[in-house]
Fold this protein.
Amino acid sequence: MIKASQILQFPIYATTQLRSRLGETCSELGLDGPDGVKTACHVDKTAFSMWVPEIESALSSGGPHEVVVVGIESHICVTQTTLDLLANGHKVYVLADGVSSCNKEEVPIALRRLQREGAVVTTSESFLYECMGDAGIAEFKGIAGLVKDVKETTTNTMQTMCKI
């Protein structure tokens, strides 16, 4: 989704849980690093939800937003973030192939709950094509290439999740 956000020019909002104790959430992403992707907001937090004052402030302008949520611990941070975003009037997409948990059994339970609460639970590929809406846009070729490049990984993830 980071590569897709660059193609489609979506801002990235990221949080890290207790960086001083747990380290960077996913250092291989290189967020805000010298050769990495620049985020609109990258906050260290103690709350499980990423709906912290800095994120709330960043999303407060322009009315409700459409927000894509990906992350680890689908039943904790992803759930609490999604519920907070929904409670604040945002449309939330949770990407089923973009969330995980240390306990794989937690993922489908969390996704079902979030869908019942009003989030759109979908896949990254479905979301990207919905965003584009038309193969005639300039970004289509980049997104189609990206989808092709990650198809095997996405397929394996989805097959694993469908078994749960």
